[in-house]
Structure formats: C-alpha cells, structure tokens
Design goal:
83 residues, alpha+beta, 2 domains, 2 helices, 24% strand, elongated
C-alpha cells in the first residue's frame, strides 16, 4: 500500500492497520528510523524496569512505576538490583 505525504509531512494510517493494532485517535505511536525505512509501533506504556502498567511516572519518553522508583531510592551505591 502506498500513501502520499501531505504538505505538512503527514500520512494517514489505513483504518485496517489501526484496527489491527488497536490504535485509536490520540494514541501515541513510536517512530523508529532504520537504514532505509521508518517503523511505526503502537506505544505500550509500562515500567522501563519491570513492565508493570500500574502507578506509572513518566520521565521523558520512559515510564517507571512507583515500586521501582522506591527500590531505586532505597538502593545503596554500588548495589546491583535484580527484578
């Protein structure tokens, strides 16, 4: 399938593609530039460390859950944390 890029650099994602991935209006998608292609993925919010979807705090483009924030806060210098 081909699409034209409009004057603002936008393209329309086909409804079939959006439905297949569960992408709804106002959802975030992740764009990745690879050598000769652009990949579009549905953004799934989860903790960067444990993948939990509960009690998330967003830091830039990453999310960290409150539980992992607490573990980091209590960690000693040089300590290795495991999941």
């Amino acid at each position: 399938m081909t699409r034209k890029v409009d004057e603002l650099g936008r393209i329309v994602l086909p409804i079939e593609y959006r439905q297949s991935l569960g992408i709804k209006e106002k959802d975030e998608v992740k764009l990745t530039l690879e050598a000769d292609k652009i990949t579009i993925q549905k953004t799934v919010l989860g903790c960067h460390f444990c993948n939990s979807a509960a009690d998330l705090v967003r830091i830039g483009n990453e999310c960290i859950c409150k539980k992992c924030i607490q573990r980091l806060y209590e960690a000693k210098v040089g300590e290795v944390l495991t999941r």
